[in-house]
Amino acid sequence: MVEPADPLIGGELIALLRRRWRASYDMQLVQRRGRLYLQVMWAYLEQQSFPLSAEDYSDRIDDLAALLNRLGVAAEVREWLSSTGERPRLGKAMTLALTVNPTLASEFLLDGR
Fold this sequence. Notes:
- The chain is α+β, with helices and mostly antiparallel strands.
- It has one domain (10-105): HIT family, subunit A.
- It is built from four helices and three strands, in the order αββααβα.
- The chain has a three-stranded antiparallel β-sheet with strand order 1-2-3.
- Strand 1 and strand 2 form a beta hairpin.
- Helix 1 packs across helix 2 (54-71).
- The longest helix is centred in the middle third of the chain and has 18 residues, at 54-71.
C-alpha cells in the first residue's frame, strides 16, 4: 500500500520555487483536453510589474496547494519542482501533466474539453 504524501502548504511551494530559481514564480492549475496540468509561469512576485501583492500571491499559492492536496499529487509536484531541468522563461510556462485518478479528476474538469 502506498503511503499518502504529507500535504503541501503554500509556504512550502514558495520555498521550493525560491530555492530552485531564486524567485517566487506564479503558478496555476489548467485543464486541457480532459487533463489537468500544473504550470509555473514566467511572472514572479519580485517583479515590479507583478499584478498581485505579497499577501494576495501567498493566498493564491495556499489555495493552489490545497487543490493539489485534494488531487493527491503533492509528492509528484514536490519531486518535479525539486528535479526539473527546465526554468521559467518569458512567454513560456513550465508544465507538469498531473497524474490524477480519473474519478477524482472529474470533480475538477469541465465538460466540453
